[in-house]
Amino acid sequence: MSAIQKSVAESSLTIKTSISAPYKGNSQQGSATLVYHHFGLAKKPIAKTKSVNSLIEKFKARSASFEGHLKTARSATATALYGDEVSVRTLRLKKGWSQADLAGHIGSYQSHIAKIESGRDNLALDTVLKLATAFSISSGEMCDILKKK
Fold this sequence. Notes:
Elements (H helix, E strand, L loop, with lengths): L2 H18 L6 H12 L13 H11 L3 H17 L5 H7 L4 H8 L3 H9 L6 H11 L3 H9 L2
């Protein structure tokens, strides 16, 4: 197992643990420190890092295989956290896509995907068809998934 694979596996475990743990006081900062530690960075978040995307881009620049490992980690996280649940979020994660990746596949924006996943958006038929195509499922299956919300 390469150092990158080990880091992704360890950080996935850390993220899973921090998601399932109840929030107590300042535990979110502790979880962030653990994630940064597993990726070999400073023990505290880097001051000039403004988003997770900038951190991901930094790791992509260091290793050509990082993106593949990240997709694998997303897929494993979906299975571990959501099991057999079928939703836009789980379909996306099982493909190893970020919200931005799915947005790119359907010609939309990450914020729109977030609204879809949270059920805060009434979708146009065109968007439903694009989602179905992106996930390689029928439009009827996509409608059934969206009705479950």
